Amino acid sequence: MSFSPGSTSAGDHRAAGTVDYRLARRAVLAEYRKGRLSQSEICDAHPELRRAAQLYSRPTTEPCPICADHELVLVTYVFGPTLPAFGRCVATLKELSSLTKSARRHKQPFTCYVVEVCPACSWNHLAKVFPLAPVRPE
Description:
By secondary structure, the chain is an alpha+beta fold. The protein contains four helices and six strands; from the N terminus they run βαααβββαββ.
């Protein structure tokens, strides 16, 4: 049996180059539960991120790991050469698809960041980062 980067992804639906931050999330939550981090240290969402969570997010069914009273939402940002320096907040999957097509058409590397946010207590954590439209050499 051989081992190669592609051999572990057979049948895997995730895009190549995706970085998942679940382990980092678990570590932060473990430190919080042990009392090594305070709620104010981990529930520190920037006001602009909180606004985006209210206006441009996608709901989840996952309860907040801190307050447990509200469900988390996902806020998606896309960064790329032709986008504003502060990125673009994407509200819908249709908009994300449109940006993917644009990136491919113009052969520009766009990177997508997905942040989970609790609108109630301001918990936030980077969930994953992935290339929106990887540019392949010709």
